[in-house]
Amino acid sequence: MKAVSGGRAGVASIVVAVLLASVGGAMAWSPDAQAQRALTAGQPWSDVSPSTDGAAVIHAAIDIAAPPKAVWAVMTDCKMAARLVVTVTLCKILQGDEHAGWDVREQVTRSNLFVPAIRNVFRSDYQPYTLIRFHRLSGDLRIEEGEWRLQAIDGGAGTQVIYVNRVAANISVPAFLVRAGMKGDTSKVLLNLRRESLAFARRGGGA
After folding, report:
1. How far apart are the first and last CA of the chain?
2. C-beta of residue 168 within 8 angstroms of C-beta of residue 142
3. Which of 15, 80, 101, 158 could form a disulfide with 154 if both were Cys (CB 3.0 to 4.6 A apart)?
4. Fold category of 31-202 in CATH
5. Tens of each residue's pLDDT in the chain, 207 residues
C-alpha cells in the first residue's frame, strides 16, 4: 500500500508540476518575430489558442507612443473601463490597499447576440508602471488568470504593452467562435488603450 500511495503522490506531483509549467510558460510570453513586425508597423497583435482544460489562452501586444506612467494611469482607472472595453456597464473597486498594491474589482459586461451578460470579480496585484497580475475570485467566469506587462521603449517615451490571459466562461457557444471573438475584441481593446493613453499624455498626464 505504501508503494501504491507513493506512486500516486509522485504522479500527482508530476501533474502539478506540468500544470504550473504550462501556466508559467503562458505568462512568460513575449512577442515573436512575426508579432514584432506587426507592432513595428503600428498594428496590435493578438492570438488566441485553446488550452487542455477548455480555457482560451490570449497572447497580445501593442506599442504606444506614450510613457508607461500615462498608459498605467489609463489602465488602472475604473472610470476608463467602458472606454477601453465598450461592453462594460460597471466597474467598481470593492476593496483594496493602494499602499500594499492590490485591489478587488467587480466588472460587468452587457450581453450580445451570442454571449450573455458577464459579472466578474477579480483581484489585481500591482507593481507600478510595469506589471499588473490578476485572477478570478467569483462571478460568471470559470477561469481567469493573467497579467499586463508594460515595458518602456524609445528611451521611455513609449510603452510596449503585453497582455496574457487564460480565461473560460460557461457559455453555450462553439469554442472556435468564442476564440475568434476574443481575438478581435482584444485587438479593439488594445487600440482603445492606445487612443486613450495618447490623449491622456497630450493633456500632460503621466509626465
Report:
1. 66
2. yes
3. 158
4. Alpha-D-Glucose-1,6-Bisphosphate; Chain A, domain 4 (3.30.530)
5. 333 334 444 444 443 444 444 444 557 899 999 999 999 999 999 999 998 888 999 999 999 999 999 999 999 999 999 999 999 999 999 999 999 999 999 999 998 777 789 999 999 999 999 999 999 999 999 999 999 999 999 999 999 999 999 999 877 776 777 888 889 999 999 999 999 999 999 999 877
The cell numbers describing 19, all together, are 500544470
Query: Which amino acid type is present at position 118?
Result: I
Contacts of 44 (CB under 8 A, 6+ apart): 38, 60, 61, 62, 186, 187, 190, 191, 194
Domain boundaries, the chain: 1-30, 31-202
Which residue type is seen at 135? H
Closest CA to 140 of 121, 123, 113: 121
Q: Is 80 helix (H, G, I), strand (E, B) or coil?
A: helix
Q: Is 183 exposed, middle or buried (0-12, 13-18, 19+ CB in 10 A)?
A: middle
Between CA 119 and CA 47 the distance in angstroms is 24
Run of H or E residues at 134: strand 131-139
Q: Determine whether 149 is exposed, middle or buried from the number of CB atoms within 10 Å of its CB (0-12, 13-18, 19+).
A: buried
Q: Among 136, 137, 140, which residue's Cα sits nearest to residue 118?
A: 140
